[in-house]
Design brief:
The chain has about 450 residues and is an alpha+beta fold. About 45% of the residues lie in helices and about 15% in strands. The strands form three sheets. Strands 4-3-6-5 form a four-stranded antiparallel beta sheet. GO terms for molecular function: peptidyl-prolyl cis-trans isomerase activity.
């Protein structure tokens, strides 16, 4: 199972069908509330406190969260990142997982109190769908995998239960009371038309709040998170566990926005210079630090060239084990010269046969599905032209020849119903955050 798969397991709300849309820019609006409480700037603690030692487990309104529960949920996160973590970082991960388990328990308890019980059959069906997506029709293979990484089917099913319970609560207590008028939707459509051709960005964000007193420690923590992400850690998983923005629940995804929606000139300037797939941060902003990841960018209501459908021929040579470096380089030179001599795609098989190369044809490749390094090269080719050779002696050297390209039509943009749904989801998300805060405020929680 890949990190992407595990990240999907950590986002079961989507599988359950009710993941709420993110609210752009909220992270940057976080402010220090210390002054409102009248707290002194120089605190003298009357008792030494080490919260990392005393919150190993918790009892939430009588329900016990065990160390096994935490260990198995942590194992899911570590499997998603596929990277070792330091002892210091493990402490932070366990603390965040415990907070998530507490919220999950409160959500399940609230659903039960309102007689919105989640049946075992519902949980098993969702679990089976996730298993089918990743392991075919054999849920037993996912059971084995989860146990092999130190988690369990029960841990994932517990998370599924929490997501289903929360979604059901939102459908009953919040969604029916969210209203979006036709005038608001029409205004949004008019703004989109006015912005046609301007760039919009799909950004991921991890926001960590900080006060002047905690700034150094928070920045150090942010740098460690960035280091883990650069080593291949899952942005979605880290955002869910560490981000203090409302978008943490959806893996930090701000959705498609225009940069002024960030409401922060510094973040706007940083994001404007980013390329898809680039990670930047931590960036110091009012209230804390942001880590930005540019998922993608496009032009409003304009066709994206990366949606073009390509017909490609991949022509590849391989190298015999033990072949000398000099002989391999000569073979690459001959291959390059042979490719340059091809008279279009119709000549590819004949030349490939003379070169001892293999040809694979695919008529249904979208530009955006190719590695980013190849996308810009392919978009500059005419039919019958090929990319420069790429690859290695170990895996083979190849070129891609463009044999056809169907460009996308001009984008029509979201329709009335889609915009209505988006605005409703944003308002549900805002109210859901307030609802969860109320559950926490009313809870009896004991830490062990």
């Amino acid at each position: 199972m890949t990190a992407k798969t595990i990240s999907r397991l950590l986002s079961i709300a989507a599988a359950a069908g009710l993941a709420a849309a993110p609210v752009a820019g909220q992270a940057q609006q976080a402010i220090d509330q210390g002054d409102l409480l009248g707290l002194p700037s120089d605190l003298s603690m009357l008792k030494e406190s080490d919260p990392n030692r005393r919150v190993a487990t918790a009892v939430v309104n009588g329900f016990v969260i065990t160390e096994t529960d935490i260990n198995q949920r942590v194992a899911l996160l570590l499997a998603a990142n596929q990277r070792p973590v330091s002892e210091e970082e493990m402490v932070r991960v366990r603390m965040q997982v415990l907070r998530n388990l507490i919220d999950e328990t409160l959500q399940i308890q609230a659903a039960i109190a309102q007689e919105l019980d989640i049946s075992r059959d519902e949980v098993d069906q969702t679990y089976a769908r996730v298993a089918a997506q990743n392991f075919g029709q054999d849920p037993g293979k996912m059971d084995e995998y989860l146990r092999s990484v130190g988690s369990s089917p029960e841990a994932l099913k517990r998370q599924i239960t929490g997501e289903l319970a929360w979604n059901r609560l939102l459908r009953r207590n919040i969604a029916p009371f969210v209203n979006v008028s036709a005038e608001e939707v029409n205004e949004m459509i008019a703004r989109l038309e006015a912005d046609r051709g301007t760039e919009e960005y799909r950004l991921g964000e991890i926001f960590l709040s900080a006060t002047p007193e905690t700034e150094a420690a928070v920045e150090a923590n942010a740098n460690k998170i960035v280091e883990q992400l650069r080593q291949g850690g899952s942005f979605v998983a880290y955002a869910r566990q560490f981000s203090q923005a409302s978008t943490a629940a959806v893996g930090g995804d701000l959705g498609w926005i225009q940069l002024p929606q960030l409401k922060n000139a510094q973040l706007e300037a940083v994001a404007r210079e980013m390329s898809p797939g680039q990670l930047v941060g931590p960036v110091r902003i009012a209230g804390g630090f942001s880590i930005l990841y540019l998922i993608d960018k496009r032009q409003v209501l304009m066709a994206d060239p990366r949606d073009a459908l390509l017909s490609l021929k991949q022509i590849q040579i391989n190298f015999e084990p033990g072949m000398s470096q000099e002989a391999a380089q000569q073979r690459v030179a001959a291959f390059t010269a042979g490719v340059e001599s091809m008279r279009g795609c119709g000549d590819a098989e004949n030349v490939a046969a003379r070169l001892g190369a293999n040809v694979v044809t695919n008529d249904q490749i979208r530009v955006r599905s190719l590695p980013e390094a190849l996308q810009n090269i392919i978009l500059q080719l005419q039919v019958g032209q090929s990319t420069p050779p790429f690859g290695s002696f170990e895996e083979g050297v190849r070129v891609l020849m463009l044999c056809g390209r169907d460009d996308p039509k001009v984008a029509a943009g979201p329709n009335f119903d889609q915009i209505m749904s988006q605005l409703e989801d944003e308002r549900i998300e805002k109210r859901a955050q307030r609802y969860l805060r109320d559950l926490r405020n009313d809870a009896f929680i004991e830490y062990n």
